[in-house]
Design goal:
The chain is α/β, with parallel strands linked by helices. The protein is 20% helix and 21% strand. The protein has a single domain, classed as Rossmann fold (3-Layer(aba) Sandwich). The strands form two sheets. It has a twelve-stranded mixed beta sheet with strand order 1-2-14-12-13-11-10-15-16-9-6-5. The radius of gyration is 23 Å and the shape is globular.
Length: 462
């Protein structure tokens, strides 16, 4: 399986400092347009536009007087231990005083206080390492305009619900080196699309150009049309999901559709997970969502909760993107990690990997993408817990990863060519790049060929 090395700039007992853009770029270091004869092929390399990972200043709330200060909120929380009056009755339609907190805010603050020291200490150690090796530093450049691309994939998925599901033929369609670059014939909404190529390929899908990483597969659909992913026939050792959580901000902005928490139980995790599969869920900083994942969702699937990790977002100079104790937006998000245990009859689904224990309260620090809902890939961090040759799946994905399977109603959003800079490069010397690697129905089509040499690792690793 295609492997990427390495997006980890620094690692210690507290966690990892990631170069999120590096992992994106490593999958597209060599790219071509499919459908041309070998002697006519042009090769180029792509880089995700650097301005997307330039976060130069912290976002500080300047409203000031209307916010409850952290000391005041601490007093309210401390008083709640002995005073039930702070647990307000939500049925009362009265305007809250500025100094009052509802139950959700109290729960969120209590959780923040519980994890604060782990986040503060872990972030400091990782940021200090990033500053020492020069990866993090003050950047004086002005922010460049962000790329913009109107994404109508979700709307297309909704329209595609009227299409009949593919029956009596293979559930997989293949992107091969000899295929034409215009692939309107691909049934993107009803079958899993899989790349058989050892380099990235530029494809025209639905009239738009996208960069497809090597050896990846994807299904463009919503939850109502996820069955082709089940029929794909793979059992995965690592499943990462970033659900579109329901919240007031999303409802107001209308930036993307949300999914009620209870609908997540419909995800067919027991049909997709191998025994011992590592399951990771991104969770917003809303206490009810965190409780739901730990107390309802994972038990419903047969997943044992093992750890909570924290993604901490910092600027290019190593400062929190929001104040750590901000009463509103926090500079971190939570990941809930567990393993699929299933039933006793699932032992045959295991690949026999020795399970690596998961330490609780680890910290992952990175400069976030300035693009909305563009999460960093955690492949290099999570692979050791799932096994080096793990089959990996991302649910609710908005981009593709080399060697991974991805699903979502915007699954190729950030593969659009507008997010990349393109530079011509010389043809590769490895002939296997130019040739099909055999029968795509072979479960191990690369078995008789050496893997392509991995791209060079960043020089930041300490």
């Amino acid at each position: 399986m295609f492997s990427c090395m390495m997006s980890v700039v620094f690692k210690n007992t507290n966690g990892w400092l990631l170069d999120a853009c590096s992992l994106v770029n490593q999958g597209v270091q060599l790219c071509t347009s499919a459908g041309k004869a070998a002697k006519e092929k042009s090769y180029f390399k792509c880089c995700f536009k650097q301005q997307c990972f330039k976060v130069l200043t912290s976002h500080v709330n300047v409203s000031g007087t209307n916010d409850i200060s952290i000391p005041d909120r601490l007093l309210v929380l401390q008083g709640s231990e002995n005073d039930a009056s702070v647990h307000f009755n939500r049925s009362k339609r009265r305007k809250r005083k500025r100094s009052e907190m509802n139950q959700g805010e109290i729960d969120s603050l209590a959780y923040h206080l519980k994890i604060r020291s782990a986040i503060a200490e872990g972030t400091k150690s990782l940021v200090d390492a990033g500053l020492s090796c020069g990866y993090l530093s003050d950047v004086k450049e002005e922010n460049e305009p962000l790329p913009s691309q109107e994404c109508n994939l979700a709307a297309l998925c909704d329209m595609a619900k009227g299409l009949p599901l593919v029956a009596d033929i293979s559930q997989v369609q293949f992107i091969r080196p000899e295929d034409g670059c215009s692939t309107t014939h691909l049934e993107l909404f009803t079958q899993v699309t899989e790349s058989c190529m050892d380099c990235a390929v530029e494809l025209t899908l639905m009239g738009q150009k996208y960069i497809i990483p090597p050896r990846c597969s994807f299904l463009l659909s919503d939850l109502t049309r996820i069955q082709p992913l089940v029929d794909y026939g793979k059992l995965f050792n690592l499943i990462v999901m970033d659900p579109p959580w329901e919240n007031k901000s999303v409802k107001r902005s209308g930036r993307y559709g949300f999914l009620p928490s209870t609908q997540l139980k419909r995800l067919p995790i027991p049909l997709l997970a191998a025994a011992g599969c590592v399951v990771v869920t991104w969770v917003t900083n809303r206490s009810s969502h965190l409780r739901f994942v730990k107390d309802e969702l994972y038990p419903h699937w047969g997943v044992e909760v093992l750890a909570e990790w924290f993604w901490v977002k910092v600027t290019n100079s190593g400062k929190y993107v929001f104040p750590l104790d901000s009463p509103h937006k926090k500079p971190y998000e939570v990941l809930v990690l567990g393993r699929y245990r299933g039933s006793g009859d699932d032992s045959h689904r295991s690949r026999g990997n020795t399970e690596l224990s998961m330490e609780d309260q680890r910290v992952i620090v990175s400069v976030p993408s300035a693009l909305h809902s563009h999460k960093p890939s955690l492949s290099d961090v999570l692979k050791p817990y799932a096994g080096a040759d793990a089959d990996c799946l991302e649910l609710f994905a908005r981009s593709l990863q080399p060697g991974w399977t991805s699903w979502g109603n915007e699954v190729i959003k950030f593969q659009h060519v507008s997010y990349y800079t393109v530079e011509l490069t010389s043809a590769p010397t490895d002939k296997s790049i130019d040739e099909d690697v055999g029968d795509p129905t072979d479960p191990s089509p690369e078995a008789d060929l050496p893997p392509p040499p991995p791209p060079p690792a960043p020089q930041y690793l300490v």
